[in-house]
Amino acid sequence: MLLVPAAQKSYNGESGGVPLFAAKPETVLPVHEMQAEVAVMRPFILPAVGSGTNFSPFAKAPRQDKLISPGGTSLRNEGRGGLGSHALRCAQGRATLLERCAGYSGAVPEVRGNPSRAGCSRFGFTLVELLVVITIIGIVVGLAMPALQAAREAARGVQCKNNCKQLAMGCLNHEALQKFLPTGGWGGQWAGDPDLGFTNLQPGGWHFNILPFIDQPDLHNLGKAPNFVYGSKQADGAARAQTAVAAFLCPTRHKLQTYPAGTTPAYVNIDPPTIVGRSDYAANAGDGSTKADPTNPNTSSDPNFNWSTCPGTATYTGTSGPATGVIFRASMCSMAAIKDGPQFTYLLGERYLDPDFYDGHQPYCATDHQGWDQGYDYDTIRWTTLGPQRDTPGYCDTGCCDTFFGSAHPSGFNMAFCDGSVRKMSFGMDPEVHRSLGNRMDGNIRQTNPNKGQIIDLTQAGL
Fold it and tell me: In terms of domains, do 292 and 430 share one?
């Protein structure tokens, strides 16, 4: 940077070193040549910078609002054949600079470089710089995506846990009013019936029975005589079965929407729905028999039906014995019947599903062919006879995948206990501990007295 010597005075009397521009110190532009160039550039400047005794070449120039050609026409609007705005600004800057310096009595250094660009700046970037920026952005996005996905899954896991809590509180509020936990219903061919109450005379399952306790009383009462909305009890029942309930769906697995309905087994007390609302949660039916057959017991709705002939009931006299869970076929389980203590007994939780069929009708062994509005069935009930399993594409384990608990979460599955607490259980937990948590009365609780039963330290399950 070349500075005018301090002893040298500007035309208006200012003194001191004044930054000019890069120049060859040994080369100067004579004043008469500068004045000649000003004469050529003057037609492009309006208004022209006047000269006078008070003019300084270093003073700020007045704004040039318009450039015209020597013929008087605007150069800014001459189309493709005229000067561009950048060229006009360059010409204006060059002419203004020369106009000022023409009135300066001292020697002015010569401008280096292309004189047509004097007074102009040009900004831009190269292709290499662009590629570098794109690469950096790609690296940052690649590093951020796993963290973003983990944060989203954590949020979905919290929502799923809240769903389990809401369903558990619905069951406990049901127990507080009815003095027993919601019944598991009759079978897979039965939907809920709002005219049949909440006892074991109710063919619908636990999802249907807790609707009034999770702020869904209107959905529960749809089809209640004589106020039919869709013309008949069967039509109203089908409309209810085709309703998606947010509290029944894990956000990691399902969206809040309806899904195709299976054709078998067919409902016997509502019109066959073509779509259904599903549920990702199942009640604990114990560690005994895992048979849901027959799907259509008590076809005549006989209040004196002999339930001891059906597996999965509290009075079953077959080889597998009575049900050991808390919600099962035609159940009416009170809190007093939970001998192991409610804090050590499963109430409900997430059930295993095959990810290949999350969005469509699944085959029988994949356990998602019907919806939430049905009785005792694999879509609504699970057992602890087998250990839990994370959702795995194609995994069916010889047809037993419709019996165990599990989830789509990578870190475990949510289970609600009979005291209303919800805990994240590990897929790798001791299968015996898992089995014992499903039995309400086997005595295998955390204790120090061996006379009360087999000692199992349930702290392995995070209790």
Answer: yes
Q: Which residues of the chain have pLDDT under 70?
A: 1-123, 263-265, 360-368, 397-400, 445-463
Q: Tell me, what's the pLDDT at 31? A: 54
Query: Do 94 and 212 reside in the same domain of the chain?
Result: no
Do 254 and 163 touch, CB atoms closer than 8 A? no
Together in a domain, 101 and 187:
no
Which alpha helices (H) appear in 15-126, and where do they start and end?
A: 31-41, 85-102
Nearest of 438, 434, 385 to residue 412 by alpha carbon: 434
* pTM of this structure: 0.69
**Residues 376, 192: Cα–Cα separation, whole Å:** 11
Total count of domains within the chain: 2
Cα 443 to Cα 454: distance, rounded to the nearest angstrom: 7
Q: Is residue 126 part of a domain?
A: no
Do 207 and 306 have their domain in common?
yes
Q: d(Cα 240, Cα 208) in Å, to the nearest integer?
A: 10
Within-domain flag for 2:
no
Q: Give CA 348 to chain center in angstroms.
A: 24
Q: Within a 13 Å sphere around the CA of 85, how many CA atoms are in the beta-carbon half?
A: 2
- 31-41 and 85-102 are packed helices; what angle lies between their axes, rounded to 10 degrees? 140
**Cα atoms in the Cβ-side hemisphere of radius 13 Å centred on 247:** 17
In whole angstroms, what is the distance from residue 266 CA to residue 260 CA? 14
- Partners of 415 in beta bridges: 349, 423
> Kind of pairing, strands 281-284 and 381-382?
parallel
Residue 91 pairs in a beta bridge with none
**Is-cis flag, bond preceding 272, omega within 30?**
no
How far apart CA 331 and CA 250 sit, in angstroms, is 26
What residues make up the domain containing 56? 23-117
**Does 75 reside within a domain?**
yes
Structural domain includes residue 269: yes
